[in-house]
Design a protein that fits this description.
Layout lengths: L26 E3 L4 E7 L4 H19 L3 E7 L11 H14 L3 H10 L11 H10 L4 H8 L5 H13 L7 E4 L2 E3 L3 H12 L3
Parallel strand pairs: 2-3
Antiparallel strand pairs: 1-3, 2-4, 4-5
C-alpha cells in the first residue's frame, strides 16, 4: 500500500517572519543568483553535523553573492521530544529572523542541541540563546513566548512534506537534490554558475 503524500497547505499563516520567501516556506539569506535550499530540523543530529561542516561554505556563497540560501526549519522530529521541541525551535528561529539574526541564532541552536527523547531547550533557554547573538531578551521573549511563529513552523513542515521532503538535512541546488556535504554543494553551485 502506498501512503498518500500530505497535501500542500491552502494558505499562508497569519504571521510570517522577516526575510521569509514569497511562498512563506523558509527564510532567505542573501541575494545571490542561484538558490540553495536546506531543509533542517534543530533536533536532528545530522543537521547539526551539516551546520558545522557546511555552514561556513554557505556563508561564503552568500557573501560572494553566488547563492541565496533558503533555510526551511521543520518540526520533522517533534515526536522525538516531549514538548514539540523541533517546532518550538523553528518558531524561535523565525523570531530571530525578525532581528536579522537567523543564521547566528540557528548556529546557537545547533551548538546547544538537546538530546532526542527529552523536552529540549526551555523557552527561557531559547531566549538566552537569542541574547548570545545580540537580541534583547525582552524583545525576543515578546515574539517567542507569544508563540508568534508556531503556525508558521507548522506551515513550513507541512509544505516540505507535501513536496516530498522525507528527511533532514535535505539540500537542493536550483531544485536539484545534492548530498548535504560542502564539497558537493560547492560543486553544484559552480556547475550552475558556470564557474570552473
Amino acid at each position: 500500500m502506498t501512503m498518500a503524500r500530505p497535501t500542500m497547505p491552502s494558505q499562508l499563516p497569519r504571521q510570517v517572519p522577516a526575510h521569509a520567501t514569497a511562498q512563506g516556506d523558509g527564510i532567505a539569506v542573501g541575494d545571490g543568483a542561484w538558490t540553495v535550499d536546506a531543509y533542517i530540523d534543530f533536533l536532528c543530529p545530522f543537521c547539526k553535523l551539516f551546520e558545522m561542516t557546511s555552514g561556513p561554505l554557505l556563508g561564503v556563497l552568500v557573501a560572494e553573492r553566488l547563492a541565496t540560501v533558503v533555510y526551511h526549519p521543520m518540526g520533522f522530529l517533534d515526536n522525538l521530544s516531549t514538548t514539540r521541541y523541533s517546532t518550538r525551535a523553528a518558531a524561535a528561529s523565525g523570531c530571530a529572523s525578525d532581528f536579522d539574526r537567523f543564521v547566528e541564532y540557528s548556529h546557537q541552536l545547533f551548538e546547544h542541541q538537546p538530546p532526542e527523547g527529552g523536552p529540549g531547550l526551555s523557552d527561557a533557554e531559547l531566549v538566552d540563546l537569542a541574547h548570545v547573538v545580540g537580541i534583547s531578551r525582552i524583545d525576543f521573549a515578546t515574539c517567542d513566548f507569544g508563540g508568534r511563529y508556531l503556525d508558521w513552523a507548522d506551515y513550513v513542515t507541512q509544505t516540505a512534506l507535501a513536496v516530498g521532503i522525507s528527511g533532514t538535512p535535505s539540500v537542493f541546488v536550483e531544485g536539484i537534490p545534492v548530498p548535504a556535504h560542502p564539497d558537493t554543494i560547492a560543486a553544484a553551485v559552480q556547475a550552475v554558475a558556470g564557474v570552473e
